[in-house]
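Holo prediction — protoporphyrin IX containing FE.
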Amino acid sequence: MTTTARVDVLTPALYGDGAPYGQFAWLRANAPVYDHVLDDPNLIERCWVLTRHDDVRAASRDPEAFSSADGIHLRRKATHQFRPNMINMDDPEHQRIRKLVSGGFTPRVLRTFKTHYGELAGQVVDRALAGGDTFDGIRALAAELPLLAICEIAGAPAEDRFRIFEWSNVILSSEDPQYVPTPDAFQTAVLALIHYAQELADRKRRQPGDDLISALLGPDGQMPLTDEEYEGLVLLLLGAGNETTRSAIAQGLLAFAEYPDQWATLRDDPEGTLDTAIEEVIRWASPVNYMSRTATRDIELHGQLIRAGDKVVLLYSSANRDETVFEDPDRFDVRRTPNHHLGFGFGPHFCLGATLARIELRAILEVLIPRVRRFELAGPVVRARSSFLNAIKELPLRVA
Ligand code: HEM
């Protein structure tokens, strides 16, 4: 065993050059249930960290022992304006809300969007390439399609995506001082998005459309959720629905710039490789670094005693590099199969937007494959200062 001071995998500043994968590997081998002391004013003081694939998976499917109800982030509560949403709930409340919206995310419904997303992706890539062969892969490419898609699903006008981009950066990367220079900035963004959500519902009551919020309101315009639950849902969908997929696309582009042979493999045989490439991008990117749980009772695991009430971190990025599950886990391999990554979580909270995210990734890659022979980095990559999301803020790319 080590002392708690030896390994730190949660201080946001450590993620400046990407997730500390070497530390994760050490923890998997030596301290798979790690008693982590945190030293960040925005985060709680202590938690357990699960780093092995088996343990993250087992805890994710056992909500009776590992509850989501006290939140899935390590942020200190005092700095945090809570809205109840499904990700922060256990069953039966969780199921009640998930069922209300899951109809809008079934593979069947989303398949009808497929051609349309292909067209949107085409427009996004046209715009990105129109400015020349060098551009910021985040604003010009990765951010656009997820924002357009989630705006359409929610029934928000496409031009509002720029505001949603700014708000969700603040809310989801709240540990980054560039986004959140003062605690007020976080509150302000949450309140602005909440206000926006209520305005959107009012608009849909007056003028219903073919979208999720109109579907929730139903023909009588009655919201089946309390105001707070509705606001929590919009916060979750607009935030989770764009930032994570943006990160997946961005890290995919970065990986293809770093491993040009993998881009060549994908281009040589898109039909045979796209499915596995998409899963590999998610595994590689692990856009959500962790979600946390709260132990509901004392639990003994690998010789450690997790006490009722303790916070437990499910470190997906580490689980996705577990050498007992993935052969040569630090190799980016677009043909990797099997690929049982946990990038979308596991169990009752399995990502509601997983099918949507996969369709978006496919749409972008399908458009880029015939048009880009290779990606190169045209400057330094700037990552968000966050240990919650593996997010990139600036990705200077040159394409040939
Ligand atoms: C590559 C992109 C994405 C990644 C990596 C990702 C990752 C995740 C993860 C790890 C969870 C599990 C949370 C937990 O167990 O506590 C989750 C849940 C969720 N995701 Fe995603 N997500 C992505 C895209 C999306 C999109 C596009 C949407 C919606 C439009 C979305 C909506 C949700 C929702 C609503 C939940 C909560 C489900 C529940 O609590 O039952 N996600 N996501």
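READOUT: The chain has 15 helices and twelve strands.
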